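Why should sequence recovery work at all? Because a backbone constrains its sequence more than one might expect. Tight turns favour small or flexible residues, buried strands favour hydrophobic ones, and helices have their own preferences. The token representation captures these environments compactly. In the example below, the structure is given first.
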């Protein structure tokens, strides 16, 4: 396989599955964690390696090292592997998705931004989602009954139980205290604002077509998806929060080997569900409008990436992330007519948010 984002949590889990099934890793790409990359190179012996920054090439223990977006595109083209695992974070993952589609490769997609910003122009027929929520929906849809509403779950993020009046002064350190697990900075912040779940609803809409989509908070993160069916029944997908399960199915659609231990409901004891409220998660007020106009995801993503950078740098407060996204969403209504226009709108929105006071 071609593994993009090998040193992140999804990449590490993917390599565990590769080891279990004796899969050849033809390409490894990473950002700046060169020490872990070198360990992966020693174990998996890839033919091509790609790093984010050209200056890091000298520190990589490999003879065939490329760099940057151009390096990723070249690697996708040169590699013989039919499977691309795209675990790149953010808008940067879009070009890799588009190139893999052009090369007619199967894509195990963890880069949700690809569909959030470019869903109108992406053929999803060869895409397998490896987010646990979308995998859960796919799993439940295998019974061929007609769905009425598809629901994904959220953890609620760092501030799900924090008094609302304290959100205005929340620090970066506070935001990164996820209640259920440790993740990268961006996705942890996105979890706290609920932007991550808004993106996942958009992704679900592009993957599974028009329909009714919603999200709720399930505090133990054991249920990842639910489907209300036309007959009045509801089914839920229970599994421990472990990316190895959806990754294994991306490798083999007919997986029948043990990947995880089943959830022991007697040990769980009880489950708690909560509403995603507009008061706590301001971004949720545009949820219905975004699902009706999914092409506008590019505006939300660009504004969010810039606002997160500003928050990390200490230039704005936590609640300002959502405020800036909503301001950009209100200002920009242009609908992209091509992939090139997606990149153009992205630049305009980033400039707009950077200029905000």
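From this structural description, the recovered sequence reads:
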């Amino acid at each position: 396989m071609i593994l993009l984002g090998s040193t992140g949590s999804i990449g590490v889990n993917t390599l565990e599955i590769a080891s279990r099934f004796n899969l050849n890793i033809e390409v490894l790409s990473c950002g700046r964690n060169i020490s872990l990359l070198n360990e992966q190179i020693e174990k998996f012996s890839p033919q091509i390696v790609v790093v984010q920054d050209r200056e890091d090439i000298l520190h990589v223990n490999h003879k065939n090292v490329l760099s940057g977006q151009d390096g990723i595109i070249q690697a996708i083209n040169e590699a013989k592997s039919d499977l691309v695992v795209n675990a790149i974070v953010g808008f940067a993952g879009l070009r890799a998705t588009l190139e893999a589609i052009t090369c007619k490769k199967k894509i195990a997609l963890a880069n949700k931004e690809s569909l959030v910003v470019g869903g109108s122009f992406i053929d999803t027929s060869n895409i397998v989602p490896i987010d646990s929520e979308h995998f859960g929906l796919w799993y439940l849809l295998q019974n061929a009954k007609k769905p009425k509403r598809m629901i994904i779950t959220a953890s609620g993020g760092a501030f799900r139980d924090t008094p609302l009046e304290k959100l205005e002064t929340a620090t970066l350190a506070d935001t990164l205290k996820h209640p259920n697990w440790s993740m990268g900075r961006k996705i942890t912040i996105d979890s706290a604002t609920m932007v991550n779940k808004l993106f996942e609803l958009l992704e679900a809409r592009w993957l599974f077509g028009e329909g009714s989509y919603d999200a709720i908070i399930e505090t133990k993160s054991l249920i990842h998806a639910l489907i209300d069916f036309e007959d009045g029944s509801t089914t839920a997908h229970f599994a421990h929060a472990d990316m190895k399960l959806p990754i294994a199915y991306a490798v083999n659609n007919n997986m029948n080997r043990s990947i995880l231990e089943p959830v022991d409901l007697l040990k769980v004891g009880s489950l708690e569900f909560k509403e995603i409220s507009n008061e706590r998660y301001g971004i949720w007020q545009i949820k219905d409008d975004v699902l009706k106009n999914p092409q506008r995801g590019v505006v939300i993503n660009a504004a969010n990436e810039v606002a997160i950078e500003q928050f990390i740098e200490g230039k704005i407060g936590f609640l300002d992330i959502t405020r800036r996204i909503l301001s950009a969403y209100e200002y920009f209504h242009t609908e992209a007519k091509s992939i090139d226009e997606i990149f153009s709108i992205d630049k305009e929105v980033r400039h707009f948010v950077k200029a905000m006071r």
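A few observations help interpret the result. Residues 297-312 form the longest helix (16 residues).
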